[in-house]
Amino acid sequence: MADTTATTFEGPSGPKPKRAFSSTNIIIYGTLFVVCLYYLLPLYVMIMTSLKGMPEIRLGNIFGPPVEMTFEPWVKAWAEACTGINCDGLSRGFSNSIWILVPSVFLSIAIASVNGYALANWKFKGSEVFFTILIFGAFIPYQVMIYPIVILLRESGDGITNVMQFFWEDAPRFRLMGSLWGLVIVHTIFGMPILTLLFRNYFTSVPEDLFKAARVDGARFWGIYFRIMLPMSLPIFVVAMILQVTGIWNDFLFGVIYTKPETYPMTVQLNNIVNSVQGVKEYNVNMAATLLTGLVPLIIYFASGKLFVRGIAAGAVKG
Fold first, then answer.
1. Is residue 78, in this structure, part of any structural domain at all?
2. Which end of the chain has less Cβ packing within 10 Å, N or C?
């Protein structure tokens, strides 16, 4: 008879599975729930208030859903609310904000991406000093630069006017101070430092072998940028776009200083609606106007949130 030996089986190896309701998980998810509630509760109150009439708001139940839903506050906030002497709602400010936002985002991202690409792959003598000075500009408080920029925009407009009148005596006076294009220039310049940092760090993380192979194949500065770097950089472009859209669209300080009532952006008009009191203070209209003002950044973020996370994870904030 053949000898038979007992076969032993080893138990499962590896770390012990964590319990779904461990104390650590309860603390983590409990904290996240409280934070989410903290941020979502005001939004809920704003939405509910904007859908109520003033008689229902006077009852004081701010957390309750509307008994009779109405969109009249939204219509009034968009087309009828008074923002100073004008009573055309936020529609004019929305148009101004779009005219400010689109060229500011396009110019700042286009210039900063080329700057970051050059600083990462085409280093020149003094490039690190230039980059340090540029980044230093990102930490200068905006308030320090307000008056010098006023003078710069005013003098630049006068200089352009003099040049135009040299060739054409009846040329109209060109103004940058108080115009939409003046504010576009301001947003483009102030967005340059942080965007250059993002693009430079992202292009540094791209394998250098791709750049060297393109150089061996005869590609030059713009050829490498458009054919290699640009197609690989969609996530970081989305990161830059979201940062710029959020910052420019939500800006109030530059809008109220460097424009005039006819060209006020949406945020300045929102301030005038909320702070202007004519008879009864209409909280539902104020809430609807606030939601309309924040709608564009929210839509852009939710539409491109995954690419934003990919851009951050791909080296957007690496030093």
1. no
2. N
- Find tokens 């430079």 and name the residue: 200
Give the separation between CA 119 and CA 225, rounded to whole angstroms: 13
Q: Tokens at residue 103, please?
A: 């060229």
Can you tell me which residue has the tokens 């939004």? 43
Is the Cα torsion angle 166, 171, 175, 179 positive or negative in sign?
Answer: negative
Domain assignment present for 13 = no
In contact, 270 and 289? CB cutoff 8 Å: yes
Three-state helix/strand/coil letters over 245-287: HHHHHCCCHHHHHHECHHHCCHHHHHHHHHHCCCCCCCHHHHH
CB 114 within 8 A of CB 237: no
**What is the tens place of the pLDDT at every residue in 218-268?**
888 898 899 888 888 888 898 888 889 989 999 998 988 998 888 889 988
Residue 84 lies in a domain: no
Alpha-helical runs (H) found in 168-265: 180-205, 208-216, 221-224, 234-249, 253-258
Q: How far apart are CA 220 and CA 229, in angstroms?
A: 12
Cα 249 to Cα 244: distance, rounded to the nearest angstrom: 8
Domain boundary among 39, 70, 101: 70
Q: Compute the Cα dihedral for 268, 271, 273, 279 and give only its sign.
A: negative
Q: What is the CATH number of the domain that holds 295?
A: 1.10.3720.10
Q: Is 142 part of a structural domain of the chain?
A: yes
- Say how many domains are in the chain: 2
DSSP string, 289-307: HHHHHTHHHHHHHHHSHHH
Q: Does the structure show a pLDDT above 70 at 92?
A: yes
Higher pLDDT, 181 or 14: 181
- The pair of three-digit structure tokens given for residue 113, joined into one six-digit string: 């991406």
**Domain of 55, in residue numbers:** 21-70
